[in-house]
Amino acid sequence: MNITPLVWIITIIVTILFFVYEFFAHVRKPHEPTIGESARWSAFYIGLALLFGVGIGMVSGWTYGGEYFAGYLTEKALSIDNLFVFLIIMTSFAVPKIYQQKVLMIGIIIALVLRGIFIAAGAALISNFSGVFYIFGALLLFLAYRQAFAHGDSNPVDGKFMRLVRRVLPVSDEYDGDRLTVVKNGRRYVTPMLLVIIAIGFVDLVFAVDSIPAIYGLTNEPYIVFTANAFALMGLRQLYFLIGGLLERLVYLAQGLAVILAFIGVKLVLHAMHVNELPFINGGEPMLWAPEIPIWFSLLFIGVTIAVATVASLVKTRGDRAKVGPADAETAAAVEESPRG
Fold this sequence. Notes:
The protein is mostly helical. Helices cover 74% and strands 2% of the residues. It is built from twelve helices and two strands. The chain has helices at residues 5-27, 35-60, 62-92, 97-128, 132-149, 160-168, 192-216, 222-233, 236-242, 244-247, 253-274, 295-337, and strands spanning 181-184, 187-190. The protein has a two-stranded antiparallel ribbon with strand order 1-2. A hairpin with a 2-residue loop joins strand 1 (181-184) and strand 2. Helix 1 packs antiparallel against helix 4, helix 5 runs antiparallel to helix 11 (253-274) and helix 7 (192-216) packs across helix 11 (253-274). The longest helix has 43 residues, at 295-337. 36% of the residues are buried.
């Protein structure tokens, strides 16, 4: 895939302009988006991402188009998991709903910048050290295990990092609009709003460690990695308000993502074996018997896994609500029939 510096520059400028427009058109004036507004813009950004993938397929070939779609699906799923953590942070800090858009926008921009740095570092590693595929593969297998069995066990707001931040920075007890600092009795304090942004930035850093090795397991093209990440993050703010209630019902999302990360980890290890150059593994010779998983299978596997995790989550939560419903009804009836003093 031949991407000229001019194409890179145009892509980065257009991406920046999208976020600048988002800020001035939707975020600058604090308000809580309606369902209709969120749905329209979510559909717009998803449609734009799909059109871009079709464009890559038509211009550069459908192998690259397939890699883009597989990467976009994976990054979108990981971004939704990111939203779930954002929801926990917003709830823990009791962020007023009219200011949540601003927090999300800043968090998404931080995520894109961090991922851009990781993408550049990953590209440099891959071009100079083929053994990095072994490292990425092992990392993804570890992250898959953590995602499956440790998801939701800790609140990032109460973690060691945030406790350190609270010890270092003087924090006021109340929000002051969307301001990050406030002066009280001649002393400057940071508001809870700044703590929220710091917490989200830290979470973004952790998620970048998950997402970049994952997509490099699907494509070696930095341009596809960047654009798939950018489109996955575009519209994430609107998606937060659109599926806020649904997020709590995606109880198997962590397990679905664990399966995807494990699959990509295995795919990376097999690819590393196939192109092996490490002298202490097989004498430095490639293991050509190791199969290369085709991109069409990766795309199919990721799509099916996300669909199964979503459907299973909705069935599980619906079943749980159905069990709770009759119990609540019986309790209410018992209260009504009990003698009143």
